[in-house]
Amino acid sequence: MCLPDITPARRDERDELLASLTRRSALGGLGGLALAGLALPLGAAAAHAAPAKPRTPSAPAPLSPPPGTFAPEGPAGLDIEVIPSAYQSMNPADPDDYASYSLAERGPADIDAIIIHDTETDYDLAIEIFTNPAYYASIHYVIREDGRVTQMVRNQDIAWHAGNWTFNQSSIGIELIGVAEEPEHYTDAQYESAGRLVAYLCERYEVPLDRDHILGHENLPGASPASHGKMHWDPGAYYDWEKLFAAADAPAAPLRSGRSGKAETVRIAPAYESNVRDFLSCDPGEGRLPARPTSVLMVRTAPRDDAPLLTDPALAAAKPAITGQDYICDWGNQVSWGQTFAVADRVDGWCGIWISGRIGWVKETDPSGASAIEVPPPSVKTVRPKKNRAVKVYGASFPGEQAFRAAGLEPVVLAPLPYSLTDEQAYVLQDVSQGAYYWSPRFDGTHGQWVRDDTSWARIQLNQRSAFVKTSDLRGV
Ligand SMILES: [Zn+2]
């Protein structure tokens, strides 16, 4: 099967880009692949963070060797073919150099998110990439346009897909065969299979079936400030999240009546078919895309249609040419269906939300005049920074240096992202977790080990992406 819109020339170009990826670029202690200068979301080549190297080896914790093949994991009746991802040494002289995933024994306590991607390639090329260890990339599932599912990594193991080690170690990844700027590849059959698979995974791993835990690659922060502005934006503004949740048979959450003592909140809820927008393409030379249904609302700096769009500081630093306009890949000025934000202010037809450390304005109606926001259920919690301190925001939730040293490992030190939260602001709390880092440097699988401490991390809805704040810096948690 070959997607009609992926021409041989484009395939060659992507092959070349993929082939030219530098292995293990230097992103501080986080390592990972770099897609330097690449504006397109190459979900298939998602960066992964290289594990920290040991100072002295810890006690081995032998894991089962990787299987030649394995039984598919999915709901009854869903057709799943197993094509295992590559798992092999890449350098006999270096036991730390292997690909393309990490052996682990994860269960419900370790997994708290499902990450949706699109491949930007056809099925054959996607499978070629995920079975070729030279790409250092892997994924648990691939779903084709006709709804057929391929599983490539066991859910207990850690696939390298998120470009952020916190999310790799705590998630299951699903690649949709598709192209972010060409929504026709997101077919009914594909939504149906994805919804059934997501529902199964949520039940099996006790992951809440909501937008705080079912995330797009575009909703993940970079683990370091350098990687944050370069994070991928798949599956993109044309992905119909409401349709995915309907296919997963997600129960409709009860809406809140009246106001509670916490910050007032608003949920982004445009009706996909009437929320029609035209964006600038992020494919060089493509110009403006046709007006199409989308899942996103635009965020402006003032409550007026002609006010400038919000500019994200990390994106502006990494890709200045595409910020502040309506490029489809500008995640800094878009919020997506199902996301919830604290309300800062309201002005006639506009809602001011706390986003990225400031107030951003979202129009309460879509371009057709239909309502595009709703009141979220009472279960939504908000948090506020403690008084009189500028609270730091991070892209990962690792343990402190002490925990790494106690395990005999070089600490992985986090640097804050370029946002500052002050005590008047409020953000929706998506999840709370303890500091954790899965260390898995060895090809033979004998050194899989969780490094943990009791650092308590809040994951908040910072903007289109999530971010982490220490709960000791917050009120309300
Ligand atoms: Zn992706």
UniProtKB/TrEMBL annotation:
Broad class of enzyme this protein falls into: hydrolase
EC numbers on record: 3.5.1.28
Pfam families hit by this protein: Amidase_2
Listed InterPro entries: Amidase/PGRP_sf (IPR036505), Amidase_domain (IPR002502), NAMLAA_amidase_2 (IPR051206), TAT_signal (IPR006311)
Disordered: region residues: 51-75
Catalytic activity entry: Hydrolyzes the link between N-acetylmuramoyl residues and L-amino acid residues in certain cell-wall glycopeptides
Record keywords, A-Z: Cell wall biogenesis/degradation, Hydrolase
Keyword Hydrolase carried by entry: yes
Record has Disulfide bond as a keyword: no
Compositionally biased residues, Pro residues: 57-69
Cross-referenced CDD domains: PGRP (cd06583)
SUPFAM superfamilies: N-acetylmuramoyl-L-alanine amidase-like (SSF55846)
Location of the N-acetylmuramoyl-L-alanine amidase domain: 101-236
The protein, known as: N-acetylmuramoyl-L-alanine amidase
